[in-house]
Amino acid sequence: MEHMLLPYRPIIIAALLTAGAALAANAPVFISPTVTAESATFRFYAPAANNVALVGLRRAAPTAMTKGSDGIWSVTVAGLAPDIYSYTFDVDGATALDPRNRSIKKWIGSENAFEFAGGTTPVWSLQPVPHGIVHRHTIGSAVAGREYTFQVYTPPGYDPRATQTYPVVILLHGYGDDDTAWAENGRAHLIADNLIAAGRMKPAVIVMPSGHPIPFPLDRVEEYFPGNLAAMERLLAGELLPFVERTYRAGTTPAERAIVGLSMGGGHALGIGLKHPELFRWIGAFSAAVPAGDPRAYFPAAATAADPRRPQLLWIAIGRDDFLLQRNDAFRAWLAQHDVKFAYTLSDGGHEWTNWRNYLADFLPLLFR
After folding, report:
1. What is the Cα–Cα distance from 256 to 268, expressed in whole angstroms?
2. Closest-CA residue to 102 (of 3, 9, 32, 154)
3. Which tens digits make up the pLDDT trace of 105-138?
4. What's the rounded mean pLDDT across residues 170-176?
5. Which contacts (CB < 8 Å, 24+ apart) does range 300-309 have?
6. How many helices (H) and strands (E) does the chain have?
7. How sure is the predictor about 47, in pLDDT bands with cuts at 50, 70 and 90?
8. Which listed site, 24, 46, 227, 325, has its alpha carbon 20 to 30 Å from 212?
9. Structural contact between residues 267 and 225, judged by C-beta atoms closer than 8 angstroms
10. Could you please report the per-residue DSSP string of 4-25?
11. CB-based burial of residue 202 (10 Å sphere; 0-12 exposed, 13-18 middle, 19+ buried)?
12. Which of 128, 166, 132 is nearest to 151 (CA)?
């Protein structure tokens, strides 16, 4: 397709640049957000705006902000539970990010993010314990037909020259995320650091892949899932696991491997993990988009408690308000009817990172015992 060149209007462009530079030069210096143990204050500079509101923080309605004489709109929010929150601003009907906050939650649409600990030490927070390392890799993938990225966490004390091997956890993200999501939004590396330091988790290599070997669309989503799951299965078994085993001190038996994910990634964990007992014996599904079709297709043979290839752990968790609850209930009913053992957690909340961080903190200590 040819690109159409637009007429160049240097006078208009120069005027816009001059006006923007003048506005930036006159903008007061301020911080947003400022967070204390009791509250968080948000600020946005918009001297010509008529209305500015804070959107997000899992509140049902926008929170009106107050304009100061310096053109800065502000609002202080108290009563927040310890969590990682996301937000944007509504400026006269237009959505705007907070230019003072460099922490961005990348999803289908981007939002700012901030941590609120509220004077506590959540399991996902940075604590004074030994820390592992998050490595980022890019490889050429024949399955994806392009460069493919993923992240790998190695635990504190990991030595690539040692003979010791570590169990492997494949940790999968949801539909709107990428390979950075579990570290940036889920704080998986900090959760692992804190659990290992507390003696609650066996040190492991955690692999956080991109769950989109097929580029994702914004429409016809249900049509996308089967093909993407099949591609993810081929990529994981044929490219990713071999790379990890060549590059890291990684265990190579199914008893040393777990696969777990959230939403779309939970569907991948079920669709791949159950189908490949020669690869995985530990499986977790958080708010899972359970793959469509007959569940018997997930299992290589008899789906019974007597099958020696059954998972050592099949762990399912979801919130009461999650839109995928009915789908998960139907899957659990099928498992029970076919004598497939599983563990189940029903929590408060919905389809949200608040739950997924907590689920991960509960799941990791159960592995490789």
Report:
1. 19
2. 32
3. 988 889 999 999 999 999 999 999 999 999 999 9
4. 96
5. 300/275, 300/276, 303/335, 303/338, 303/339, 303/340, 304/338, 304/339, 304/340, 305/339, 305/340, 305/341, 309/277, 309/278
6. 8, 18
7. very high
8. 325
9. yes
10. PPPPP-HHHHHHHHHHHHHHHH
11. middle
12. 132
Task: Return the pLDDT at 305.
Answer: 56
Pull the structure tokens for residue 159: 């030595």
Q: Which backbone phi and psi does 284 adopt, to 5 degrees?
A: -130, 140
| Contact between residue 97 and residue 111 where contact means Cβ atoms under 8 Å apart | yes
Shared-domain flag, residues 287 and 208: yes
Does pLDDT of 317 surpass 70? yes
Please check whether residue 114 is in contact with residue 101, taking contact to mean a CB–CB distance below 8 angstroms.
yes
346, part of any domain? yes
Q: List, in sequence order, every residue forming a beta bridge with 262; answer none if it has no partner.
A: 286
The residue out of 116, 143, 173 marking a domain boundary is 116
Least confident of 138-147, 163-172, 336-345: 336-345
Better-predicted residue by pLDDT, 293 or 6: 293
**What percent of the chain clears pLDDT 70, i.e. is strictly above it?**
91
Same-domain pairing of 151 and 292: yes
The answer to whether residues 212 and 178 touch, using CB atoms and an 8 Å cutoff, is yes
Residues 107 and 149 in one domain: no
The two three-digit tokens of residue 223, written as one number: 């049509």
236/140 same-domain check: yes
Looking at the structure of the chain, the number of domains it has is 2
Q: Are 337 and 302 in contact (CB under 8 A)?
A: no
277 and 143 share one domain: yes
pTM: predicted TM-score of the whole model, two decimal places: 0.89
Q: Is 279 in contact with 237 (CB distance < 8 Å)?
A: yes
Give the whole-angstrom CA distance, residue 171 versus residue 346.
20
Residue 247 inside a domain? The answer is yes
Task: Please state whether beta strands 313-319 and 343-347 pair in parallel, antiparallel, or not at all (unpaired).
Answer: parallel
232 and 103 share a domain? no
pLDDT value for 221: 76
255 and 108 in a single domain? The answer is no
Q: What is the DSSP string of 111-130?
A: EEEEEE-TTS--TTS--SS-
Residue 18 has pLDDT above 60, yes or no: no
